[in-house]
Amino acid sequence: MLKKILLPISMLTLTIGLTACSEDKKETSESSESVSVGESVDYEIIGIDPGAGLMKSTNTALETYELDDWELVEGSGAAMTAALKKAYEDEEPIIVTGWTPHWKFSEFDLKYLEDPKGVYGDAEEIRTIARKGLADEKPNAYKILDQFQWTAEDMGNVMVMIENGEAPEDAAATWVEENADKVSTWTEGTEVVDGEEISIAYVAWASEIASTNVITKVLQDQGFEVKMVQVEAGPMWTGVADGSVDAHIAGWLPSTHQDHYEKYEGDFEDLGPNLEGTKIGLVVPAYMDIDSIEDLK
């Protein structure tokens, strides 16, 4: 008799439990659907160093798209990618300032948010900038810098090696060895020197760490003593303009470094693009259900 009483009670308890669980899931689902993109990321866009042109463009985007409640978080390229990596691993929403080429596009499934108002402009290029007088004083180094040109895929391969744990100089040496034919076009018509010194400035972006280590390795193989000078974007341009460094190969134009270019124009020599087809903008993981900056409203 006892068993006959307990069985209906157990079934009733189970039924109530399942119903409650179902209601909880429904409530959670409805709550999740009601959360806006802004709320899901605390109305924050994870940025990089405050002096970068990408940050200026993003501030302009916030104004242009009337995203008054949003905040652009200043930091560094390394901090941005660390935040992106953590969010991606947990499949959480995140919005970051991004640029191509960058290793994160090889490691993660990401997408740029559409920019219908064209705030971030068209594709950019990275240019080589040399101090005045370098061609006369160090003609072999000047010619190598002038002939240096590669692709986003080339740069991406070096960045991935570095991200996977190789020291930048080792990754650069590997790439140079595996791409001897391309490197030979950069050194064509030059002579090996005996310890001639040259200084190359760069910003600590993954892209520029890759490119500067590669060109440093090429110059070293030609007998140069190379000094790599890590600085922020402003001092990088100032150094070339005032002659305290010989060159940099990190001029993102026409948008990212536009202010620096215009400020010092006439005080440096523009050797033209060493990489074409770059891009900047707002980047999100592909699993986020958002496609345009306008959706942030």
Automatic annotation (TrEMBL):
<keyword id="KW-0813">Transport</keyword>
<protein>
    <submittedName>
        <fullName>Glycine betaine ABC transporter substrate-binding protein</fullName>
    </submittedName>
</protein>
<feature type="domain" description="ABC-type glycine betaine transport system substrate-binding">
    <location>
        <begin position="197"/>
        <end position="297"/>
    </location>
</feature>
<keyword id="KW-0472">Membrane</keyword>
<feature type="domain" description="ABC-type glycine betaine transport system substrate-binding">
    <location>
        <begin position="36"/>
        <end position="178"/>
    </location>
</feature>
<dbReference type="Pfam" id="PF04069">
    <property type="entry name" value="OpuAC"/>
</dbReference>
<dbReference type="InterPro" id="IPR007210">
    <property type="entry name" value="ABC_Gly_betaine_transp_sub-bd"/>
</dbReference>
<keyword id="KW-1003">Cell membrane</keyword>
